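User: For a benchmark we're assembling, each entry needs the component sequences followed by a predicted structure for the full assembly. Here are entry 17's components. Please fill in the structure.
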Amino acid sequence: MNLISDALSWIFAAEQWQGDGGLAALLGQHLLFTVLAVLIAGVIAIPAGWAIGHTGKGREIAVGIAGIARAVPSFGLLILLVLLLGVLHKPEAALLTFVVLAIPSLLAGAYTGFEAIDRKTIDAARAVGMTEWQILFKVEIPLGLALLVGGIRSAVLQVVATVTVAAYVNLGGLGLPIITGLNLRRFDMVLGGALMVAALALVLDLAFAMAQKAAVPRGLGARTKKKFHYTDDQITLEREMS
Amino acid sequence: MNWILENLGLIGSLSLEHLRQSVIAIVLGFAASIPLGWVAWKYKLLRGPVVSLTGLLYTIPSLALLMILPVLTGMSAISEANLILALAIYAVAIMVRSVVDGLNSVDPATRSAATAMGYGTARRFFAVDLPLAGPVVLAGLRVTAVSTISLATVGILVGVTNLGYLFTNGLQRRIIEEVLAGIIAVAAIALLVDLLLLLAGRWLMPWTTASTLKRRTPAPKSTEQAAS
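Assistant: Structure for entry 17:
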């Protein structure tokens, strides 16, 4: 347990947090990459997922893309893109990798959210004279929101994990102390970095779990509510199973 | 293409290493998930904590887990055993929930019928519950297998050689083909194992017929046992 206390004193040393390579800067880089990647992926994948969920078309294609995407190692994709785009465009290459990584979860979150809605509700909306756009914005999007937040949660966690690996191509982030520490054989640094990344992932997971609960519309009864409390890997399974 | 043709032997031997490490991890994770999932399913009080704690393990980034585990186990961070253990932990994180869901999907009437016919607890579990939970468990196992094989490449960052070697070596030597060969090999192994699991499932569980496969509307969780 000595290693743990060494790592903790490394994390809590004031000088660790200052300067260009300080923990504050690394944490900022890590979060910036994550937020940017999930935002870009969301702009692409969420409308596409909504279109699939609303029309019921193209689902097989989305499932196929997700299946192949899971088989591709993101660490390998990152290095391939760095080589293809050239070392000068390393941040762009990394961002592109993270976007590709985030798309399947967001897509699945968007369309499974629509599919989980009782068809009767949508028929009722149509029967009271709502247009397709009204059904989309007033019925489907609010009711599908909790599962979409679940998809965002899973995308964020995957990207956070992969940004850690990106330190290998000198992109900074919280993986940097792990990679540098391994080379220097400074295990307090390695473990300190690892604990920071794990803590960041757990905090984000907790925040999204709460957001997911908050995203369930008030009108939903306790019985239907249960169906909307999905977590990240449930979405993955859902995707695989259906 | 030249690099790939000249190094087929290397790609082949790394692929075997990669497959061996992944398969051990998948089998270990699967073997641990069955009793864990059973306990969580049987004792309702434990279900919440077991399912959410194992699920939480999945959120820890791999590179971090690879560094934290040695402190707890006393193993060397750069050993193959450490990588396999980390991968097995991720496998458990995905599988436990599928085992619980699978056991939940078994019709209670079937279970009562087995009891009425004189099946003891253990025999009923292996002869009735587990086979009927099979399709849902298999769906989880397939997700686990594919993600384990893809994730194993991170092992090279802590010095465990597998197909991830083609990524780091390819970057150092700036050989795009080498990195591409690595990605294709990993994806091919993952999809091949996935296909083998699917076929094994059809062979072991012939009752998974077209009617259960075609169930597309998202029914309540308990009835959704279609495994494509």
